[in-house]
Write a structure and sequence with these properties.
It is built from ten helices and no strands. With about 200 residues, the protein is mainly alpha-helical. Helix 2 runs antiparallel to helix 3 and helix 3 packs across helix 4. The longest helix is centred in the middle third of the chain and has 27 residues. About 10% of the residues have low confidence.
Length: about 200
């Protein structure tokens, strides 16, 4: 079955079998493609897994204008670029080059106005999740650990790490969807710092 057909099966029929076939067929080549943007092989593997997670979560909104292969490549490129941007912002923050979360270039005044409300809602959402979910999310997103490293540190399987991370992100998206246009890494770092006090 071709990639275009698999995406149709996924989008219209919620086919997990088609999703698995698509993943197995394109995951290795997308990881190779991702290395054009990100040097770390392990980080690229995590990013591409995030691509497929997002694909499944948004399967009913799939809109292909060219081909399924180009669709996946575009998603991978965008996810890699987003990772690089988040990483750059985080490093600037850690190195003290950025002290104000609004210095990252929010052009929308409404985002600034809603900052404190969004911050409170995110703290509340994360606190409702099991401790293991929070740890996986923190280690993955803010300590740049890959799935294998997290699994070893927490004494759980890689599959459990993937599942915990995916469920945490789904919960955050559900609760914050009315506020977020872009997940601002600086703000999240501040939140996690606050939670650890």
């Amino acid at each position: 079955m071709q990639a275009d057909e698999l995406l149709i099966e996924i989008s219209e029929k919620n086919s997990q079998k088609a999703f698995k076939l698509l993943f197995e067929s394109y995951y290795p080549s997308l990881c190779i493609f991702g290395r054009r943007y990100i040097e770390s092989e392990e980080v690229v593997e995590d990013v591409v897994q995030d691509v497929f997670t997002s694909l499944w979560e948004n399967r009913h909104r799939i809109n292909i204008e060219t081909s399924a292969k180009n669709y996946l490549i575009t998603m991978t490129r965008n996810f890699c670029l987003n990772y690089l941007q988040r990483n750059r912002i985080e490093q600037n923050y850690i190195q003290g080059k950025m002290t104000n979360p609004f210095e990252i270039g929010c052009n929308d005044l409404e985002e600034v106005v809603l900052f404190s409300e969004l911050k409170s809602l995110m703290i509340e959402t994360l606190k409702t999740l099991p401790f293991e979910y929070q740890q996986v999310f923190i280690m993955s997103r803010f300590e740049n650990k890959n799935y294998r490293e997290i699994a070893e540190a927490l004494g759980i399987s890689v599959k459990s790490v993937e599942r915990y991370k995916m469920r945490t992100e789904i919960k955050l998206r559900e609760n914050l969807q009315d506020y977020i246009s872009i997940m601002i890494i600086v703000m999240i770092i501040q939140i996690l710092t606050e939670m650890s006090r």
